[in-house]
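Following up on my earlier thread - several people asked me to post the actual chain instead of describing it. Fair enough. Here it is, all 204 residues.
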Amino acid sequence: MAVRDNIHSRVVFWLKIVLPLLALVILSTLFLFSRRIDTDAALPYAEVDVEDLARNQRLTAPEYSGVTTDGAAIMIHAGVARPGAEGEAATAEAVSATIETPGGLRIALDAGQGRLDDAAGRLILAGGVDIVTSSGYRVIAARLDSALDRTELQSDGAVRAEAPFGAIDAGGLQIRREEAGRPDYLMVFSEGVKLVYQPPKKDP
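Reply from S.P.:
Thanks for posting it. Predicted structure:
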């Protein structure tokens, strides 16, 4: 019985020495054969040009809203906007705007470029302006100047329109309130107006 206890004690004694050493060997092997980390590729999105951000300040998806003196609601949205230099208007790209009058007329505007001069109360759209009204008109203009304090839009140059009664070509276009105290709004084509009348199709 004493011999048996002696063997057991010796086994336990050597295991206490061998097992920790074996653990150290395994850990050393893991560190030696582990894949080296590429510190240059560890943060692929960490490269930021701070100077470029400071030089080219911009806002993503900005919005502007207001109400005119005649009660129309204006909402302007842009894909990207950049503040102008001192004394200059802010510029924007992918501009869309809506004007909703108290009488229910809705005017939707889409343009490739725009300038918002809040101090002068003007929105100037360029780069191909698409104008769609809830009354059934669609107008294409190269440039459009819109007031922000009242419902007044005026094209800078020729326009082409699709109306419920046909097609219109004109040298200019103006959308404005007819007169104070009345809810009506006018769409005035001017400067050599050409109308191609298309009578409505009759049901068979």
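The two ends are 117 Å apart (CA to CA). That should answer part of your original question.
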